[in-house]
Request: fold
Amino acid sequence: MTQKYPITPAGRDKMKAELKKLKEVDRPNNTKAIEVARAHGDLSENADYDAAKEEQGMIEARVRDLEAKLALAEVIEPTELDGERVKFGATVTIEDLESEEENTYTIVGEYEADMKKSRISITAPVARALIGKQVGDTVSIKTPKGMREVEIVDVEFNPVD
Reply:
């Protein structure tokens, strides 16, 4: 059995949009670039042709990668989830018990993680430590700064944009 992986609707839509752009914009542009480079003559010393062919390989690899990921994606809508326990799709606020610093993270699929938007992969150590816990629980998390004790302050299930 092939293992499915969780993804939010926003993550799936972003993948579909990238796939569409690759197929409808990047692939045709690349085909034109190859044709133009071929018209320049000798292909053995044609840097433009080599670059266009290399780009073609990267486009095709990315298309295959996205198609495979989408085929295995299990779309989970966070707003349809609820409860007190941390799980995929949860937006979790934690407080570092030593520094009293609060951080909020949304647990998303590994292909949609983005630290700039405070989205962490469900496979990340922080997320794995939080899964199954609830508000008020104290959790030990291994970070680059060493072990940290955090308390779960809030768990919400909001849409991911």
In short: Residues 78-156 form a domain with the Chitinase A; domain 3 fold (CATH 3.10.50.30). The chain has a mean pLDDT of 91. The two ends are 31 Å apart (CA to CA). DSSP finds three helices and seven strands in the chain.
